[in-house]
Specification:
Residues 115-208 form the Cyanobactin oxidase ThcOx second domain. A hairpin with a 2-residue loop joins strand 3 (27-32) and strand 4. The longest helix is centred in the C-terminal third of the chain and has 23 residues, at 393-415. This protein has helices spanning 44-55, 60-63, 68-79, 145-152, 164-176, 191-194, 198-206, 251-257, 261-267, 282-293, 352-360, 383-386, 393-415, 427-434; strands at 9-15, 20-23, 27-32, 35-40, 83-89, 92-99, 115-116, 121-125, 128-132, 138-142, 180-181, 220-221, 244-245, 297-301, 304-308, 320-326, 335-340, 345-350, 374-380, 389-390, 418-422, 442-450. Helix content is 29%, strand content 25%.
């Protein structure tokens, strides 16, 4: 913080997003729910500066022509993360440091050759480019393309995008914000940073409550789309073609004869070797689908359809769809099918050529590269969740995939079937085969099912 005119850049201060100040004649209270901080003993000049900050961005000269108490107050607020700082040059805003946590002390020096952290992600947001790093205490909004050139490393050393004093300040701010590291290899020297990929750490931080996300205003079940977009129906449109009826087991009989929960939990194993000479039958496949993923009931509340299935789902939305990809099932032609969980039928989706492509990668986890008898592809109609939830829907979808995989594992064990979940899938092949837009329905999991080799 400096009132000197030795440099051509200027700091502009404002309360960070979501923060404000309530003033009384003798005190002030900083508010950024759920945080609250009282500022006792403020001077009249400091009170006036706080009122000015409530009105919008201001320089030190806007807050007070020359008052050491105001300088001290602004420095203290900035150092505790209450203020966003915009760096302005020749009347143009260059970038804004937008804190969401308490910053560390400013660096005393900046090493030559520092480079952008592998965890820093730059994206467009409300007209600006924002630089985010899950290990930082702030985001940086980039307003000027010259800053983007410098931050991205695309600026030419022969023709500097910014004057030296501004570039020096930017380099210091990037280090302070933890958006740069000493060199390109430094983040690979430790296991703790090398083991995380940028998208994984960013997703982890963005989809959980943290210093960045402290309230429920834009996080969780906000029903943000209510009034703007109609909710997606629970049931997707039927695929054309004649439906294949499936056997319906007697649940009451199964209650009496099924092995205990303890038995199936203890006996469950991943099966990687299947008996193609005596494959799973259509009736057994139908029973497995009925017991694990059928829709038991539908109810509507406030225009949204909610379902009940054998496995739990956040908000009873049940966005998952199931596609048996069949190579060898007694009584059923090979091909890709959609399981209609409402009518308990299979509907043809695609032919043998697609089956081969979808099954090929699954063979990597099976014994001696054999192909699955059945691969159940799990897809998510993401809009069902995204209509209600903000920031967390994809994380919730993956949790649902885990729940349903365990459900299928345990029921398959109870039925004497073999099962092994897949840790990956060919999402492009699925979307082409199912004829769906990936932004509307995407492959999020899969599990191989069949008759185990004894």
């Amino acid at each position: 913080m400096n009132r000197s005119i030795a440099t051509r850049h200027q700091d502009v201060y404002s309360f960070r997003p979501g923060a404000t100040c309530v003033t009384t004649p003798r005190a002030a209270i900083l508010l950024a729910p759920p945080h609250k901080e009282k500022l006792p003993g403020v001077t009249p000049a400091q009170l006036q500066a706080l009122k000015t900050l409530n009105l919008g961005p201001a320089t030190l000269d806007d807050l007070s022509p020359a008052d050491a108490d105001v300088d001290t107050l602004v420095g203290s607020l900035a150092g505790r993360g209450w203020l966003a700082i915009t760096v302005r040059f020749d009347g143009a805003d260059l970038y804004t440091i937008r804190p969401f946590a308490t910053p560390p002390p400013r660096p005393e020096f900046v090493e030559e050759g520092r480079t952008l952290s592998k965890f820093t992600i730059m994206r467009r947001d409300t007209g600006n480019i924002v630089a985010e790093n899950p290990m930082s205490w702030c985001d940086i909004d980039i307003h000027d393309p010259r800053v983007l050139e410098v931050v991205s490393g695309l600026a030419s050393p022969a023709e500097p995008a910014l004057p030296e004093d501004v570039s020096t300040r930017l380099a210091s701010d990037l280090k302070w914000a933890r958006h740069t590291v000493v060199d390109a290899e430094s983040e690979d020297d430790e296991f703790r940073t090398r083991s995380w990929n940028p998208h994984e750490l960013w997703f982890h931080r963005r989809s959980n409550l943290s210093e960045r996300v402290l309230t429920w205003e834009t996080f969780g079940p906000t029903r943000w789309a209510d009034g703007e977009f109609p909710p997606l129906p629970a049931r997707k449109d039927n695929y054309p073609g004649e439906a294949i009826e499936l056997a319906t087991p007697d649940i009451e009989d199964l209650r009496a004869v099924d092995p205990s929960l303890t038995d199936v939990l203890e006996d469950r194993v991943s099966c990687r070797d299947f008996d193609d000479a005596a494959p799973i039958t259509l009736d057994r496949l139908g029973e497995l689908l009925f017991r694990t993923v059928r829709t038991k009931s539908v109810r509507t509340a406030k225009g949204v359809e909610y379902l009940s299935r054998p496995y739990p789902s956040g908000g009873a939305v049940h966005e998952l769809e199931f596609y048996p990809v069949v190579r060898n099932v007694a009584g059923l032609a090979s091909g890709m099918y959609h399981y209609d969980s409402f009518d308990h039928v299979l509907r043809p989706v695609a032919d043998d050529q697609v089956v081969e492509r979808l099954l090929r990668t699954s063979s990597l986890t099976l014994s001696q590269g054999q192909l699955p008898q059945v691969l159940i592809v799990i897809a998510a109609r993401s809009g069902r969740l995204m209509w209600t939830y903000e920031q967390v829907p994809y994380a919730i979808i993956l949790k649902h995939v885990g729940v349903v995989l365990q459900t299928i594992y345990l029921v398959a064990t109870a039925m004497g079937l073999g099962a092994v979940a897949q840790g990956y899938g060919d999402t492009t092949a699925f979307n082409e085969a199912a004829g769906v837009d990936e932004l509307e329905e995407c492959n999020v999991g899969s599990i191989v099912i069949g008759a185990p080799k004894r």
